[in-house]
Amino acid sequence: MRRRPRGEHIIRLDGVGLRYGLGPEVLQDISFALPAGSFHFLTGPSGAGKSSLLRLMYLGLRPTRGRVMLFDRDIAQTKRYELPALRRRIGVVFQDFRLLDHLSALDNVALPLRVRGVKESEVQKHVPELLGWVGLADHLNAKPSTLSGGQKQRVAIARAVIGRPDLLLADEPTGNVDDHIAMRLLHLFEELNKLGTTIVIATHNEGLVQRFAHHKRLHLEHGTVSKVEE
Amino acid sequence: MLRRRSDLPLKGDATSRFLPWLVALMVYLSAVAVAGTFVLAGLVSRWDHDVAGTLTVQVAPVPGEAGEMLTEDRVRQAVELLRRTPGVKAARALDKQQLIALLEPWLGNADVVRDLPLPRLVDVSVDPDSRLDVAELAERLSDTVPGASLDDHRVWLSRLINLSLTTQWVAIGIVVVIGGVTSATVVYATRTGMAVHKGVIEVLHLIGAHDDYIARQFADRAFSLGFSGGLLGLALAVPTLGAIGMAARRIEGGFLPSLSLPVTGWVVIGLLPLIAAVLAMYTARLTVHGTLARMP
């Protein structure tokens, strides 16, 4: 997998604004750059625009103004057929997990590998290993509807990290798990970060941010960045 | 193709349950239309082949006691004139027995026909390479032999062929319309399926699936549904065509040439389920691509 030297910017936003339809701007004049290999907590009160900013970053939305540079590519200038290759370099943990209910935990986690055309023998080797690591070795064939909130969240995290992404974006990834599991998941993210993955975790769990205070913070207030540590 | 793994839960879709039945109906109708086209094409070719290069001379019967002798004399004159005409290969007068045999399928009882004042017929074979002036021959014949007239089959044959060709084009048009209706239904079913599975599609899209990865899953499902529906339609069409064939053989009589479906016709009909499945597959694929192109 391509890894860029630490320090180079993996994502840069310049004067970005976002509105839904004809509504007011939910994000205004967002400008920041995240260096490769950095670890940021995206903080801010509910409604500050954390999820919208993450959606822009994982290419789930296009900004209504401004420029988004991802992996040195200007997204506005990038052809549509080139976007899947960029998306494959991003792992996303959605706030509502977005697991596919008709697939087992194993098949959900295997999705990013399968869309890349990874051999089934590789899939069957790596996916159970990772699910075991997040404590779900006994739930490989369980459907999401039979899993608890915390278990679903771990499946969602496993799906986000299985492809060893360059950029991991997580929206409240510890919201449904107890402290012990939360710490374990944060350590998993730190391990990934050590291997070169840039991490952005949206959270309003101030206690968790304090416990990992050695990581940087990107703070949103009223749809604009009020603080960014680079 | 039918066994490829799918990430989308398309099997349980209510919208795709009606598709095989619709394709079955479409394939059934197409099979009947295709069979009609092939049978008509064969019929036209047989008629054309059978009557090309032939003319018929008709000599009206002379009434009265000596009428039969006079009529016979006029027939002989007509045959002689025809045989002398350049371009005429043969001219043969049909005797009364042959005439009665020709009319029997239409008028029935030979005894009744025997008493009718029937015109006499002369069957004429023409060299197809000669430039025989039929109009001039007709005029000469009616001037020389009283009551004689020349019937050029090409006039009524060309009308019949035109009618058959028009019918064939109508049948082809019907098949095209059926194809269009099938495609429109697949577009509707695919769009509905995409709306139902919007969340799954969005997840696949966001984790980096190419549009074709998603489109292929819809296309595979459409192929599978189209093919099973097509086979059902074919299974229903074959006995129908057999029944029509049997009914046609009963009324063939002396007028219609054999109404049989050629091997090519059966092959095309046999391929209809596959054609319907491929049509459904490509339609679904294009529909998904068109819809996904609107996603960011």
UniProtKB/TrEMBL annotation, chain A:
Main localization, broad class: membrane
Subunit structure: Homodimer. Forms a membrane-associated complex with FtsX.
Function recorded in the entry: Part of the ABC transporter FtsEX involved in cellular division. Important for assembly or stability of the septal ring.
Alphabetized PANTHER family for the sequence: CELL DIVISION ATP-BINDING PROTEIN FTSE (PTHR24220:SF470), IMPORT ATP-BINDING PROTEIN (PTHR24220)
GO terms under cellular component: plasma membrane
Listed PROSITE patterns: ABC_TRANSPORTER_1 (PS00211), ABC_TRANSPORTER_2 (PS50893)
Protein name per Swiss-Prot or TrEMBL: Cell division ATP-binding protein FtsE
CDD domains in the record: ABC_MJ0796_LolCDE_FtsE
NCBIfam families: FtsE (TIGR02673)
Record GO terms (molecular function): ATP binding; ATP hydrolysis activity; transmembrane transporter activity
The family this protein is said to belong to: Belongs to the ABC transporter superfamily.
Cross-referenced InterPro entries: AAA+_ATPase, ABC_transporter-like_ATP-bd, ABC_transporter-like_CS, ABC_transpr_LolD-like, Cell_div_FtsE, MacB-like_ATP-bd, P-loop_NTPase
Keyword terms of this UniProt record: ATP-binding, Cell cycle, Cell division, Cell membrane, Membrane, Nucleotide-binding, Transport
Residue ranges of domain ABC transporter in the record: 11-230
Signal peptide (residue range): none
UniProt subcellular location: Cell inner membrane; Cell membrane
Species this protein is from: Magnetospirillum aberrantis SpK
Source taxon at top rank: Bacteria
Membrane topology: Peripheral membrane protein
GO biological process: one example: cell division
TrEMBL record, chain B:
A GO biological-process term: cell division
Residue spans crossing the bilayer: 21-44, 169-189, 222-244, 264-284
Keyword Glycoprotein annotated: no
A cellular component term, taken from the record's GO annotations: plasma membrane
Stored InterPro entries: ABC3_permease_C, FtsX
Topology of the protein relative to the lipid bilayer: Multi-pass membrane protein
Taxonomy, superkingdom: Bacteria
Domain ABC3 transporter permease C-terminal: 174-285
Keyword vocabulary terms for this entry: Cell cycle, Cell division, Cell membrane, Membrane, Transmembrane, Transmembrane helix
Principal location class: membrane
A Pfam entry, by short name: FtsX
Localisation: Cell membrane
Name of the molecule in the record: Cell division protein
Species this chain originates from: Magnetospirillum aberrantis SpK
